[in-house]
Design brief:
12 strands, alpha/beta
C-alpha cells in the first residue's frame, strides 16, 4: 500500500498551515539569527530528556508533529565527478563500485517522478554529479525536467553543484521549488574533507539562490571524524543565515569502500537524535530532514528522531548511490507511528512554470571562477592512488 493510499485511507490532516509567503516576514522577525557556537554546544550537551522535551515542544509550536514530508531523490547523472569529497563514491578519482551514467532523458525522469508520486512522495529531488552547472544543452535539458515535474503538481528540487545568479533565475523560471546545496560540516573542518572547492563557494551559491523565489535546502553530514564543536559550527553557519534554510538535511555518513572515509565508525543513534533535536531548537521553522543513514537506524531510533523534530525523509531504496529503506517499510513505520505524509506546496505555494521560449533569462555562457584551494588532504590522495598509504 503506497503512502498516498495510506494517507487517505487511515488519517485526515488535522490542521492547515499558512503559506510560506504569509508567514515569512513574521518568522524572520521572531527567529533568532545570532547563534554562537557556545550557545549551540550548551543545547547539544543538555541531558537527553531535557533536550528532547525542549525540541519536541518547539517542534509542536511550529509544525504538526504527525506530518512528515516525503521526498524521492533521483540521480539524473551518476559518477565521474571531478571533486574530491572524502565521503562521496561518485568522485571519479576514487575506486568505488559506482557505475557512471550519462544525463537521463526528460521522459525517463518523468516516468520516475510519476512512480514517486504514486508512492506518496510530494517532492522529487534531482541530483547530478557535477562540480558546477555549465550553460549548454545539458542544463537546458535539466530545465525541461524541472518544467515537466512541476506540471505534475510535485515539488521539484535540484542539487547540481555550484550555480550562478543567472542560472538560479533560469531554474526559478522553470518552476524549481527548492535548491539543495549542503555545507557538509563546519567551515573549520571542511578543509579536512574537501580540497577542490572552498566553503565560501557553498555560501555564495546559497546567496545566488536567495536572489530568486526558490527555497533553500542545506544541511550536512555527521560521522566524518568531526568533533562536536564542528557539528555546532555547521549549525551556526546555517542558523545565522537570514532567512534560515527552509529545509535542513541531517545525514549520517554511509561509509563506502574505496572512499577516503571508508573506515569511519558508524554514527550512534543517540548522536543523530541529539543533532536533530539541536537543529530543531535553533531553526524552529525549518523542515529537518532525516536523510542518509536510515538503513542503520531502527524504527525506534527513527521514531525518536521524529519526536525530536525531524519532519521529512527521503523515500525509496536508494539515495543517489547509497542504500535506503524500501518505501513499503517506511509506509509500515508511518502506519505504526500514526504519521501522515505532507501534501505538496504546504509551506510555499506552487511556482509558475515559464516555458523556454518565454524566458527572461537566457544562456550567458558564464565561466565563473569558483575557488580551488591549494591545500591537499593525505587520505584523499591515498584513496585516489596518488600516494601510497
Amino acid at each position: 500500500m503506497p503512502f498516498s493510499n495510506f494517507n487517505s485511507r487511515n488519517f485526515q490532516l488535522k490542521s492547515e498551515f499558512p503559506t510560506f509567503e504569509a508567514t515569512k516576514k513574521a518568522a524572520m522577525s521572531i527567529t533568532k539569527h545570532d547563534w554562537t557556537k557556545e550557545e549551540i554546544l550548551s543545547i547539544y550537551n543538555k541531558p537527553m530528556m531535557d533536550l528532547l522535551f525542549e525540541a519536541a515542544t518547539i517542534h509542536r509550536e511550529h509544525h504538526d508533529p504527525n506530518v512528515v514530508q516525503v521526498s524521492t531523490l533521483l540521480s539524473i547523472k551518476t559518477g565521474g565527478c571531478p571533486e574530491d569529497c572524502g565521503y562521496c563514491p561518485q568522485a571519479a578519482r576514487y575506486h568505488t563500485k559506482v557505475e557512471g551514467n550519462d544525463l537521463m532523458s526528460v521522459s525517463q525522469v518523468k516516468a520516475q517522478a510519476l512512480r514517486a508520486k504514486s508512492s506518496g512522495s510530494s517532492r522529487v529531488c534531482m541530483g547530478a554529479a557535477w562540480r558546477n552547472v555549465k550553460d549548454g544543452p545539458e542544463f537546458d535539458q535539466v530545465l525541461e525536467m524541472v518544467r515537466t515535474i512541476n506540471k505534475l503538481d510535485m515539488e521539484v528540487c535540484c542539487t547540481l553543484g555550484m550555480i550562478t545568479e543567472n542560472q538560479a533565475h533560469r531554474l526559478a523560471e522553470a518552476g524549481l521549488y527548492a535548491y539543495n546545496h549542503n555545507i557538509d560540516t563546519s567551515e573549520e573542518y571542511y578543509k579536512e574533507v574537501i580540497s577542490t572547492r572552498g566553503f565560501e563557494d557553498r555560501l555564495q551559491t546559497i546567496e545566488n539562490v536567495r536572489k530568486t523565489n526558490v527555497t533553500v535546502c542545506s544541511g550536512g553530514i555527521i560521522g566524518m571524524g568531526e568533533t562536536i564543536e564542528d557539528r555546532a559550527g555547521m549549525l551556526v553557519a546555517l542558523a545565522t543565515l537570514s532567512p534560515q534554510p527552509e529545509s535542513v538535511p541531517i545525514n549520517a555518513l554511509v561509509a563506502v569502500d574505496g572512499t577516503p572515509l571508508e573506515d569511519q565508525t558508524p554514527v550512534e543513534i543517540w548522536e543523530m537524535i541529539r543533532m536533530v533535536a539541536t537543529t530543531r531548537i535553533v531553526m524552529p521553522e525549518t523542515q529537518v530532514r532525516l536523510s542518509a543513514g536510515r538503513m542503520n537506524m531502527s524504527r525506534e531510533g527513527q521514531a525518536m528522531c521524529f519526536f525530536a523534530g525531524a519532519n521529512s525523509i527521503f523515500a525509496g531504496d536508494k539515495l543517489l548511490t547509497t542504500p535506503n529503506p524500501d518505501v513499503n517499510e517506511d509506509m509500515k513505520m508511518f502506519e505504526m507511528l500514526g504519521l501522515i505524509p505532507q501534501k505538496p506546496f504546504v509551506k510555499v505555494s506552487q511556482p509558475e512554470t515559464v516555458e523556454a521560449e518565454d524566458s527572461q533569462y537566457q544562456t550567458l555562457g558564464e565561466k565563473p571562477r569558483w575557488s580551488r584551494p591549494g591545500h591537499t588532504i593525505e587520505r584523499n590522495l591515498e584513496a585516489s592512488g596518488k600516494i601510497k598509504p
